[in-house]
Design goal:
It is built from no helices and eleven strands. It is mainly β. Strands 2, 4, 5, 6, 9, 10 and 11 form a seven-stranded mixed sheet that branches. A four-stranded antiparallel sheet has the order 1-3-8-7, with no helix packed on it. A hairpin with a 2-residue loop joins strand 9 and strand 10. The chain is globular. The N and C termini lie far apart (40 Å).
């Protein structure tokens, strides 16, 4: 079955950086769109980055554009989210997402806290 395991979250000061990783298994990774979403208390889950199977196309909302970069290594079945210039409002649980054969799957999430 589909399995997504995130890592790399933690506590960082404003202006700092973190890189999240998502190791995938149980499906054809290179054919699947991957994404990162986040959710903070009292708010809906929102997409922060998407990348197509080949990595040729990426998409970001304005709130993270220029600060976050999604990438993937299809040889390692791993997706990444590089987060720079972090702000307190980036604090959330970050989830890895995979869209494969028309079905979406989620990882368990990793906490990112931006605070001084």
């Amino acid at each position: 079955q589909v399995r997504l395991v995130e890592s790399g979250g933690g506590l960082v000061q404003p202006g700092g950086s973190l890189r999240l990783s998502c190791v995938a298994s149980g499906f054809t990774f290179s054919s699947s769109t991957m994404g990162w979403y986040r959710q903070s208390p009292g708010k809906e889950r929102e997409a922060v980055a998407l990348i197509t199977g080949t990595g040729a196309t990426t998409n970001y909302p304005d709130s993270v554009k220029g600060r976050f970069t999604i990438s993937r290594d299809n040889a390692k079945n791993t997706a990444y989210l590089q987060m720079n210039s972090l702000k307190p409002e980036d604090t959330a649980v970050y989830y890895c997402y995979a869209l494969t054969l028309g079905l979406g799957s989620w990882g368990q999430g990793t906490q990112v806290t931006v605070s001084s």
